[in-house]
Write a structure and sequence with these properties.
Blueprint: E1 25-34, H1 37-43, E2 61-69, E3 81-85, E4 94-98, E5 102-104, H2 111-115, H3 118-131, E6 139-143, H4 148-159, E7 163-168, H5 171-179, E8 183-186, H6 187-192, H7 195-198, E9 201-206, H8 211-215, E10 220-228, H9 242-247, E11 250-253, H10 261-274, H11 276-280, E12 288-293, H12 297-304, E13 312-316
Parallel strand pairs: 6-7, 6-9, 7-8, 9-10, 10-11, 12-13
Antiparallel strand pairs: 1-2, 1-4, 1-13, 2-3, 3-5
Helix pairs in contact: 3-4, 3-10
The protein binds NADP nicotinamide-adenine-dinucleotide phosphate.
Length: 323
Amino acid sequence: MFEGAGGNEVVRVAERAVPEPGPGEVLVRVRRVGLNPADIAQREGRYPPPAGAPADIGGIEVCGTVERCGPGVVRWRTGDRVFGLVDGGGFAERVVAEDRCLAPVPDELGDDEAAAIPEAFITAHDALATVGRLRPGDRVLVNGANGGVGAAALQLVAAFGGTAVGTSRSATGLEHIRALGAEALAQEELLAGDVDRLGRFDLVIELVGGPNLARLPSVLAPRGRIVVVGVAAGDAVELALRPFIRLRASLTGTNLRNRPPEEKALAVQAFAHEVVPLLARRRLVAHVEACFPHTEAVAAFERLASSGKRGKVLLGFPDGADG
Ligand SMILES: NC(=O)c1ccc[n+]([C@@H]2O[C@H](COP(=O)([O-])OP(=O)(O)OC[C@H]3O[C@@H](n4cnc5c(N)ncnc54)[C@H](OP(=O)(O)O)[C@@H]3O)[C@@H](O)[C@H]2O)c1
């Protein structure tokens, strides 16, 4: 939990009452949770959670087993392995989730890999397929592609018949992008390179923001789409608008956590139907940078904030037998 707002000095392990699942909700016994930049923003007091979610417990995705179902839940039974999204409170041994915001974990996936999937793959799939209207043959640029969402996006582009190019600011990040089978481009090359060399993109998934955005209109293909998902490098830019008119291009933002529950459930169920089978067949894989015991949450936050990660940072909770 977070005792106030700030840096890692506000991170504590504490006892809380077990939450009660209401209608349409299930109580999940958490095995692993992925950490996200949103958790850092919440810890720092910059990102209040949606109404009803605890402000002092981070954790927006979970992997575990169903412990108890609330009234009216028919989709799940006690003991089912599930992963999915929660509005908050995931950094805990138990959390309440909406039944429709969970998906079944395929037998082929262990807990670590499963926990590295929901937020990254649901965000990437929604940004590419639903918001970005990805089509087979599209050339797609993913900026900040060595992170959780970026690595998922690169693989999804290839699986859906597109060609992916990923940028990173670090050598280890570029290596990770190549290992995922995508073309790697140093961020400075994107910023400085001429269009003849870079080529044009049908779709851009922007996970970094800042100076990248100013560069993007000049590398868009006709009817190109820019989908802004993250702006860690800055959200104020000077943008040339003429290319949007000339190319009939578009610039869209998207957000998973704060959208209405029905729309969030749709994104999760689209993931369950279109992405989970590819994960089960090992056509897509999720990478884990490190898994820390929940008692070492500070070390996990430090790793999350470091540059050049090659996968997700997780927290692990003891199972029913050992805790
Ligand atoms: N809109 C939504 O619903 C939604 C959902 C999920 C995530 N997000 C946002 O999307 C972004 C990516 O999430 P993630 O889970 O993939 O995070 P992540 O695993 O931490 O990856 C972040 C990526 O952005 C790069 N990056 C961060 N700051 C940078 C900077 N100042 N200059 C250049 N590159 C920078 C990182 O490079 P290094 O490895 O070198 O640090 C890495 O490639 C985050 O901003 C996150 O908040 C939004």
